[in-house]
Structure formats: structure tokens, C-alpha cells
Amino acid sequence: MSTSEIPLYIDLKSPYAFIASHRALALEAEGKAAFDWRPFKLEIGSRAGADPEAFLRRARYIYRDVRRFAGPLGLTVRGPTKIYDSTTALIGLLYAKSAGGHRAYIAAAFTKFFNRELDPGDVEAVTALLADCGADTGGFASYLAGPGADQFAASQEEAQELGICGAPMFVVGEELYWGQDRMDMALAAAGVA
Fold first, then answer.
1. Are 14 and 23 in contact (CB under 8 A)?
2. How many domains in the chain?
3. What is the CATH number of the domain that holds 46?
4. Is the peptide bond before 72 cis (omega within 30 degrees of 0)?
């Protein structure tokens, strides 16, 4: 196994990132791989405006497709009732990462979101989630408005420079692997057996 972390871009509202993260977290727990978890905000709202009917057809298909993978893993994936802004939850990921509690946060955030128990844009809900995962949330509000916002913006800029165009996306050297179904390719390229 390679000891270096594989950069993995996720959005906590992406159903495919949920599937990939479930597997990646298990690999980390088993000591078989290590990931550098990075936030990437999908701009779903911009896709919905041009042709709402086509957007809804695509969304319905995506959730049917994701359930094909989620069912055997015992994961629940309920489609969202609206288009969410995940910025707050993604800054929460950075906060949890700085405290060393990001793995629990990632697992809980995905599970709660796809059970319709988390609005990823709700500051109080994200703060409660961080607390549930063992983070000291006393500084989260100031982090969210200051350094967290700056780190998130820098992360999005870095993602754009790398060519990140979706979530999940694995980065191995100069190569990008988009989608949970490319995970094995990314692991092989990284030398993870």
C-alpha cells in the first residue's frame, strides 16, 4: 500500500460521493488506504434553470442509479426535496478535519443528509452535527465567517485549477478519476492493493 494520502474531492450532497466515501472510510478504517478529504461544491442550481423538466428526469435517474449501489451496502439514499447549498457543511468538513474528527463527520453528514435529517446550509444543524461528532464547536461560528470561508474559497480555487468537475473525484498525480465507479482505477494508479 502507498502511504501517501489520495486527494478525494467530495460534496456532502452528492449521492455518488456518499457511495465512494462509504467505501473510502472503510478502507481507511482497515488501514488499506488514506485519503485527503477535500470539499468541492457542486453547482446544481445552475443546471436546473435551463430546462427544469430535463433536470428532473436526470435527477430521478441518478437517484435510481445510486440506489443500485447503496442497497447492497445497506445505505439509505432518499432524494432531496429541494436544491441545497452545501457551503456551510463543507466548511464544517474543514473544521472537523482541523480537529481530527472528519471521518465521523463525513459519515454522519452523508447519512443524515440522505435520510433528510440535515440541511447542509443550516448553521445550527451543522454546528450540532459537529458537536455530535466530538468537535468543540465554540469557535465554529467565527471560523465559518472568517478563516473557514477563506480556506473554502482557496479549496474551490485549487479544485478549479486541477480541473475538478464533479464529486467524488480522486486525484492521483496528474490524473483525475471522476465517480465512485472509478475508485478502483484510482486506487490501482496510487499503488493501493
1. no
2. 1
3. 3.40.30.10
4. no
